[in-house]
Design goal:
Structural class: alpha/beta
Radius of gyration: 23 Å
Order of helices and strands: EEEHEHEHEHEHHEHHEHHEHEHH
Number of strands: 11
Helix content: 25-40%
Largest sheet: 8 strands, mixed
């Protein structure tokens, strides 16, 4: 069971004793209720836009969130089932550390991205998407780009770099995805997906589940990112409960104006309550249906990562993630590695400050950028 939770698609182990990691604002005293209300993207990113990309079937539209005006671009790719919003807290932190620009995108069939063929989640197609979005944003002369991917997004980042879809690639950062543990986990992944709730009664309920289940250990990050994982599903308004409440809203002519107003308010409240009962939230992405692509995401990943000529950083939640090829490569100095203990699989959400510190140090060491004036590293 432990191995399957390393699969780089979903959650990791349950929360450690002692509360949540730094970055969470929700360290409450006894008797105080934790706040699971959603937070807006605009609290963490400066802008949001939709980027149109041409393909053989028409136009695909990719949702991106951006921050920063100067320095190299950090292109952020989220994990399977997640969205660009999983990078929200990290983005606010990294932009306070170094001079950089951030572009976080919703990948194909994820978040608010809309594509003509959402069923094609092959590594090749998704890597090409990255190149097309970069070209749409910057034309033929893109700025220096550091590509950073978590989980499935880490695998897609490696495939993107290996296929040279980003000619201005500065470096590659992969977060908690290793071929060996991922491949070992594939057989048990469906059982894990079936164990998750199918629906939530509200977004707050989904946020609470994500924190208490250990999927995201940082409450602040969960409050902004879970809105990208789940969507509201309205049940048919022709269902008996709703149609009855609307149908009974007929007012008799002899009612006086005051009674009519009071009656209207009462019926509106009842209608609202009835509609709210019919509103549920479910997962935006049915991960179980993406199974045929899992092996393609991860097989051969270690070799692809090691052969990428750009400077590389591997951030892991535990050293047990390393497979043989990566262990040898790390001993040979082919990449830099850092283990961030006491994190779940969503490392950049659980400990955004630690991930930002590791990435900032890496980029400054390679002279990709500089620390911001006044920032004490």
């Amino acid at each position: 069971m432990e191995k399957q939770l390393h699969l780089n698609l979903l959650a990791s182990r349950p929360p450690m004793a002692g509360g949540f990691q730094s970055g969470s604002k929700m360290k409450m005293g006894p008797g105080r209720k934790r706040d699971f209300s959603p937070l807006p993207w605009s609290q963490y990113f400066e802008t949001m836009e939709d980027v149109e990309v041409e393909n053989e079937n028409g136009k695909d539209i990719f949702r991106i969130y951006c921050s920063g005006a100067h320095g190299p671009v950090l292109l952020l790719l989220h994990g399977g089932g997640h969205s660009a919003l999983s990078w929200a807290v990290f983005t606010a932190v990294i932009c306070s550390r170094i001079n950089c620009r951030v572009v976080a995108m919703d990948l194909r069939a994820h978040g608010d991205t809309k594509v003509k063929n959402p069923d094609d989640l092959s590594a090749d197609t998704m890597a090409k998407d990255i190149g097309k979005v970069v070209e749409a944003l910057y034309g033929e002369n893109p700025p220096p780009i550091m590509i950073i991917g978590h989980s499935m997004g880490g695998a897609i980042a490696v495939h993107t770099a290996a296929a040279n879809h980003i000619p201005s690639l500065l470096g590659l950062c992969v977060i908690d995805v290793v071929e060996g543990t991922a491949m070992d986990a594939l057989n048990s992944m469906q059982n894990f997906l079936r164990s998750r709730p199918k629906t939530f009664k509200s977004l707050e309920n989904a946020i609470e589940w994500s924190v208490k289940s250990g999927q995201i250990r940082n409450t602040e990050s969960a409050r902004v990112s879970m809105g990208g994982q789940v969507k509201k599903c309205e049940q048919s308004t022709s269902s008996p409960g709703v149609s009855n409440s609307i149908g009974e809203g007929i007012i008799e002519e002899e009612e006086d104006e005051e009674a009519e107003e009071e009656s209207n308010k009462k019926r509106m409240k009842e209608d609202d309550q009835e509609i709210k009962k019919e509103s549920i939230f479910t997962w935006r992405v049915e991960l179980s249906k993406t199974e045929k692509y899992w092996e393609g995401w991860f097989r051969g990943l270690s070799a692809l990562f090691l052969t990428c000529p750009a400077p590389k950083l591997l951030l892991l939640a535990g050293v047990d993630r390393l497979d043989k090829d990566l262990t040898i490569g790390q001993m040979q100095g082919k990449f830099q590695m850092q283990v961030l203990p006491q994190c779940g699989h969503a490392v950049h959400e659980d400990a955004p400050e630690k991930v930002a510190d590791a990435l900032a140090t890496f980029m400054v060491r390679h002279k990709f950028t500089e620390f911001k004036e006044g920032y004490l590293c």
